[in-house]
Amino acid sequence: MKNKSIVAAVIAALTLSSCGSSLAPVRKDALKPAVVTQALPHDTDDPAIWINPTDATKSIVIGTDKDTDGGLYAFDLHGKIIKKSIVLQRPNNVDIAYGLMINGKKVDVAVTTERENNKIRVFGLPDLEPIDNGGIPVFEGETMRDPMGIALYTRPSDQKIFAVVGRKEGLSGSYLWQYELTDSGNGKVDGTVVRKFGNYSGKKEIEAIAVDNELGTIIYCDEQFGIRKYVADPAAKNDNELALFGQKDFKADHEGIAIYKKTATEGYILVSNQQANTFMVYPREGVNGNPNEYPLLAEIPTSTIECDGADVTSVNLGGVFQNGLFVAMSNGMTFHYYSWDSIQQLIDAAKK
């Protein structure tokens, strides 16, 4: 995408979001994106990055377009739309996992919540074709369903994949449901609920969820309250809350979560401070030898407006993304791509 297109998209996003909005404006020191994607028809909400196993420079970003006739969209690293999924009824969040066994073959998948149908939907990658027999019902038997957030956990011991699903409303202690994704026997994906857990303050909702496969943890935002942490493996039978942090750092809503992995165990947790148009940064590994202690390291002002969702990778994707790509949703129906180097510089400056 040429620079003029990037500037025009940013201006459009700022203009759309400022109309009648009481949100904080983009700060003058806001981090500038390397790329702004083509705009979607309705309402962007959440992105996920798929790493091409044979050529990382051909990796793609999958993003949701949240509307009754929405869908999943695939973007290249220049922000160009290269594929759209079948029509989905209000897809909310999306996550990606690698190597789900189907018909004896490993298939990379993107899984999204389809809110108006009370299902999760599974798509093969990179072709973005559905492989779920029309979807997997979630929160069955509940009066409060409306699935929103999703994150995928791949268990290191056996490579089984589990979906952690959040919703618009739920009860504390069983707000999140976890499903094992399996081959249904006909080349399609099925899901079985294996766990119900998750404390909830009752203040707003739980939407943003992230899983750290290497550390075996789930982190999610209890909006307007804090960020909670749990064990990811359902076989551990440990539903105790491990940590609660970020309670005093946010203007209002705790939103999208992205985990940057510098090594197998070290890195950063970035969480959208939605109404401030910034991202709060915490140490992935904790501090002082305590993996459940999360002091605020930095606040990064970005060009995004009211960001709902984000993702990040440390994989070398080439060009300006040699140390990784951070992607975040913005009002104006776009996603903004940032070079990780520009974020790392701000984190380093905040530490001084």
Automatic annotation (TrEMBL):
InterPro entries (alphabetical): 6-blade_b-propeller_TolB-like, B-propeller_Phytase
Signal peptide: 1-24
Segments forming domain BPP: 16-347
SUPFAM superfamilies, A to Z: Thermostable phytase (3-phytase) (SSF50956)
The entry's keywords: Signal
Protein name: BPP domain-containing protein
